[in-house]
Amino acid sequence: MASRRKLALYLVLGLPLLLLPLSFSVVAAQQTTTGEISGLKFVGMALAILGSTIGAGIALHGVAVGGSALLAENPKAFTQVLILGGLAEGVAVYGLLVAFLIMGG
Q1: Residues 39/45/51/53 CA torsion (nearest 10 deg)
Q2: Does the model's pTM come out above 0.70?
Q3: In this entry, which stretches build a coiled coil (predicted)?
Q4: Residue-wise pLDDT tens digits, 1-60
Q5: Burial (CB count <10 Å: 0-12, 13-18, 19+), residue 1
Q6: Can you give the residue ranges of every domain in the chain?
Q7: Under a CB-based contact definition with an 8 Å cutoff, are residues 92 and 53 in contact?
Q8: C-alpha–C-alpha distance, residues 92 and 57, integer Å
Q9: What CATH number labels 34-104?
Q10: Contact 63, 81 (CB under 8 A)
Q11: N or C: more exposed end of the chain, with fewer CB within 10 A?
């Protein structure tokens, strides 16, 4: 039963990813003027932000799990855990920066 539920979840979440290349080809086929941003730039910007925020979420999960275990044993290490959380959030900021660089180029 759980494997069917997991398969259905993967199908629901994965189906849009399978259909995205079709929509990208339609967007790329449209002609754009020189002043507009082409459709594939938007795709690149979205992928940069999406990848960096997923990576930041994974990193923050690790910091939260490890940091809570560390703080249970040593409450004085709060500053170090906070710094690690800030470094993990910086990954999302870098993705946003790459998106702006793609938009400008």
Answers
A1: -130
A2: no
A3: none
A4: 667 787 777 766 666 666 666 555 555 555 555 555 677 888 888 888 988 999 999 999
A5: exposed
A6: 1-30, 34-104
A7: yes
A8: 9
A9: 1.20.20.10
A10: yes
A11: N
